[in-house]
Amino acid sequence: MTFSKINVNIDVVHLTGFEVVPFLILLTIAGCVGRPLPSKLDDVDKQPLQTSRPYNIAHRGSNGEFPEETAAAYMRAIGEGADFIETEILASKDGVLICSHDVTFDLDNRTNIANFSQFADRKRTYEVQGVNMTGWFVVDFTLEELKLLGVNQRFSFRDQQYNGKFPIITFKEYISIALDAKRVVGIYPEIKNPVFINKHVSDFPCVIIILGSKKIIPTQLIRSNGQMGKKFEDKFVETLMKFAYKGSYMSKEWLKQPAFVQSFAPTSLTYIANLTDLPKIFLIHDVTVLKEDTNQTYYDITSDSYLDFMKNYVVGIGPWKDTIVTTKNNYLNEVTDLVAKAHARGLQVHIFSWCMMSKICEHSQ
């Protein structure tokens, strides 16, 4: 790809590192994931989060070097200087929140699940964002079963030597990695595929109030699919609160343990606005993708009226980089007005993502 100088005023970039890593780090990672959670270090001597330049967010960790969203990828990203480590959160069959980009393990051969004969008959077909998909789905496996799997490198042109060597990690393990850093490192978790998760996972714990001989189920625990229990979003926020993540953007509490909550689903963001004051980012994909929860188009959600609505719930937008500067035949093309529209409303712009996603990118490093 040929790069031109284009002036776009952005607040955050999602990056991935590419340095060669000694194999010794494998031993360090193994020790990290196995210990009790959380094992937070003393905050007194920690270097604070830098706030003098745009944040460097490690998108799924340092996934150009290690399989994405593994402890190795996140620890390496912290070592390379990331301000925040980013992840997507899904849920297992038994309601445990885990770090994984995809609801199915078949995409890009993301895990070594095909090597496990006991799971051969567990393939299913589900509708995901309007498309029927067949494969092994995270919602059909307990955490114990998921922990048997090893994560593979997503792209064949990336380093394959660590395939299958690192397990899927939980949301809590991911948080522990950030809290254990010797400086303040923020987290940037995504509420991923909430419509799909809420439809297929019903094992989130819920509280039933008993008065005499009557059981009273709070209305908010009756989900839209008729099942009883907390929503995926409730569990997500409860986990953050358990580990003391709270506070509005740049508040004293937030600076102590920084976190942004991101989602492509606007209804999830408006829902959790009543649960936490942590800053929220409204993710925006390319022009072809509909919102899974509202079926809105790109043009719907980037309209003046909708941005005026969402600014009441979020501190910023997180657009795919091609919606900021379009491309044509692998060349940079035109700058759109999306950044200007966001900044006019006081919204930050967190663009994703600059990383080795194709051989074209690899050759341009």
UniProtKB/TrEMBL annotation:
Annotated EC: 3.1.4.46
InterPro entries: GP_PDE_dom, PLC-like_Pdiesterase_TIM-brl
Highest taxon of source: Eukaryota
Keyword set includes Transcription regulation: no
Example of a GO biological process term: lipid metabolic process
Transmembrane domains' residue ranges: 12-33
Keyword Transmembrane helix: yes
Alphabetically ordered keywords of this record: Glycerol metabolism, Hydrolase, Membrane, Signal, Transmembrane, Transmembrane helix
Reactions the enzyme catalyzes: a sn-glycero-3-phosphodiester + H2O = an alcohol + sn-glycerol 3-phosphate + H(+)
GO molecular function, one term: glycerophosphodiester phosphodiesterase activity
Chain ranges of the GP-PDE domain: 54-365
EC supergroup of this enzyme: hydrolase
Pfam family, one: GDPD
Family, similarity comment: Belongs to the glycerophosphoryl diester phosphodiesterase family.
Listed name of the protein: glycerophosphodiester phosphodiesterase
Organism: Quercus lobata (Valley oak)
